[in-house]
From TrEMBL:
GO terms for biological process: mitochondrial electron transport, cytochrome c to oxygen; mitochondrial respirasome assembly; regulation of oxidative phosphorylation. Pathway: Energy metabolism; oxidative phosphorylation. GO terms for cellular component: mitochondrial inner membrane; respiratory chain complex IV. This is Cytochrome c oxidase subunit 7A2-like, mitochondrial. The chain crosses the membrane at residues 86-110. The keyword Cell inner membrane does not apply. Keywords: Membrane, Mitochondrion, Mitochondrion inner membrane, Transit peptide, Transmembrane, Transmembrane helix. The keyword Chloroplast does not apply. Belongs to the cytochrome c oxidase VIIa family. SUPFAM superfamilies: Mitochondrial cytochrome c oxidase subunit VIIa. It is a single-pass membrane protein. It comes from Gambusia affinis (Western mosquitofish). Gene3D superfamilies: Cytochrome c oxidase, subunit VIIa. InterPro entries: COX7a, Cyt_c_oxidase_su7a-rel_mt, Cyt_c_oxidase_su7a_sf, Cytc_oxidase_su7a_met.
Amino acid sequence: MYYKFSGFTQKLTGAAPTVAYNPQGLKQSLPAESPTMIFATPTKMVSEAGSTVEYLGTNKVPDLQKFFQKSDGVPVHLKRGYPDRLLYRTTMALTVGGVVYCLVALYIAAQPTKK
């Protein structure tokens, strides 16, 4: 006996062998056409690219490594200046606010109910 998944009942149902081996959406009669190009620039096939690797820009990793490994007393998570300070302080404020909210909720929950 062959089975297939029914999208209507969300269960396995009995099916003929041809239906079980060709699920919905996978029809053999559809012509094999390449899809339309989505991006403006065509991509290279692996065989066309050869062994060389092309980059779109310069490699910034060595400069960033020097920048972040510089020993200037600033923590690594604050090295980029104002945006890092803003993110750090926002995270700390939300953390402290969440702790205060939890403590208030625990205090309210610990109070006896008034009858």
